[in-house]
């Protein structure tokens, strides 16, 4: 593979889409769950309805055209082919920003914020808030290559992103991330490479037992409660992918039903919704994201990022840091914890709506947070 930045277009062969429909039509289903909620996992009725829509009404070519409507590229970084979107602003003084997704997300999470961030004037904003966007797909995710050996952890990915921004000619830029993207962005902040001016995180992960000192304060009690609920009811996927990603990968590679349910259940659980994620995200949006796992057969390779990787943004960072916490996200951390590690917090806000998939769920507040965070360092 060339070390050059090469244009990339998605062109999924029709036979792969036909195979998907065949698999969906021939799925063998389990019996119904024995409860009337999501506590045993994604309900049979909901998953069948999602898969029926996927088989009969979903249009991948629409999503493919949307992605191909932005400048897409591939580049070799540290021996691995990486797919990324590079969407430049029409504003000449736009601030370059690299944004990193997590699991079970993809670059699709950002599709509603690309326009407002790159062309604020066209969306009722100020030209001085414009960004050039670089949106890479993580190694083993989407249309990036799959690592063939261990070692592609947060630090290595962060170093690859530094090389990417350098290859693109950006000598001053900012970085943003949530979920795995927050861990990777925190590593960028810790290493403070030349050119990185500031970072923004919309996920904070801290070890509660390490951070609580003495009697917990009210905001600490909230973090403790969220952490306990997550450990008791949400942690199964993490433990499985963190220890045996290959084993679950066989099912994710072979069964579109499992791949859909694996992600759909997390979109339901981690988004800020009134009881049904379909009131926040459309079936098309969720399936667009699921397709970026199914089509490249990324179920196992994406899960391997959990294997021998920690999940902790508690890293010492001296450069400017912005934090936006969305109330409906399963993770929460008090500012007092963050201040132990982030010595220069330039923006802190706790929003009363929005969840773990902030840009996907609440694009307008997300865009405001990004603009407000980085305005002072332009």
Automatic annotation (TrEMBL):
It comes from the Bacteria. One of its GO terms (molecular function) is cis-stilbene-oxide hydrolase activity. The active site is at residues 179, 306, 356. The keyword Lyase does not apply. Its EC number is 3.3.2.9. InterPro entries: AB_hydrolase_fold, Epox_hydrolase-like, Epoxide_hydro_N, Epoxide_hydrolase. SUPFAM superfamilies: alpha/beta-Hydrolases. The keyword Hydrolase applies. Keywords: Aromatic hydrocarbons catabolism, Hydrolase. One of its GO terms (biological process) is epoxide metabolic process. Pfam families: EHN. Transmembrane segments: none annotated. Residues 5-110 form the Epoxide hydrolase N-terminal domain. Belongs to the peptidase S33 family. This is Epoxide hydrolase. It comes from uncultured Rubrobacteraceae bacterium.
């Amino acid at each position: 593979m060339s070390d050059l930045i090469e244009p990339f277009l998605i062109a999924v062969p029709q036979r792969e889409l036909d195979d998907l429909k065949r698999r969906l039509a021939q799925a063998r289903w389990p019996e119904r769950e024995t409860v009337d909620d999501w506590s045993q996992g994604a309900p049979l009725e909901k998953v069948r309805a999602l898969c029926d829509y996927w088989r009969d009404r979903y249009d991948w070519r629409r999503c493919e055209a949307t992605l191909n409507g932005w400048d897409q590229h591939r580049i070799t970084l540290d021996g691995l082919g990486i797919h990324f979107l590079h969407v430049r602003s029409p504003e000449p003084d736009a601030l370059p920003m690299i944004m990193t997704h997590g699991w079970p997300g993809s670059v699709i999470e950002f599709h509603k914020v690309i326009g407002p961030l790159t062309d604020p004037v066209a969306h009722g904003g100020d030209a001085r808030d414009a960004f050039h966007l670089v949106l890479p797909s993580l190694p083993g995710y989407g249309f990036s290559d799959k690592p063939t050996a261990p070692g592609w952890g947060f630090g290595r990915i962060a170093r690859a992103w530094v090389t990417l921004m350098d290859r693109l000619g950006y000598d001053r830029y900012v970085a943003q991330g949530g979920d795995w993207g927050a861990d990777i962005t925190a590593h960028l902040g810790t290493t403070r490479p030349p050119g990185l001016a500031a970072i923004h995180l919309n996920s904070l992960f801290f070890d509660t037992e390490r951070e609580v000192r003495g009697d917990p304060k009210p905001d600490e009690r909230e973090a403790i409660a969220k952490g306990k609920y997550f450990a008791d009811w949400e942690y199964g996927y993490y433990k499985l992918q963190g220890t045996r990603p290959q084993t679950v990968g066989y099912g994710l590679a072979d069964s579109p039903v499992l791949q859909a349910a694996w992600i759909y259940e997390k979109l339901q659980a981690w988004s800020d919704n009134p009881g049904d994620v379909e009131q926040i995200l459309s079936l098309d949006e969720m399936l667009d994201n699921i397709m970026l796992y199914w089509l490249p057969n990324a179920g196992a390779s994406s899960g391997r990022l959990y294997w021998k990787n920690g999940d902790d943004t508690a890293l010492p960072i001296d450069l400017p840091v912005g934090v936006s916490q969305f109330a409906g996200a399963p993770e929460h951390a008090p500012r007092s914890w963050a201040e132990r590690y982030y010595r220069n917090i330039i923006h802190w806000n706790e929003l009363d709506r929005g969840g773990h998939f902030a840009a996907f769920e609440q694009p307008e507040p997300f865009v405001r947070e990004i603009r407000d965070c980085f305005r002072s360092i332009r």
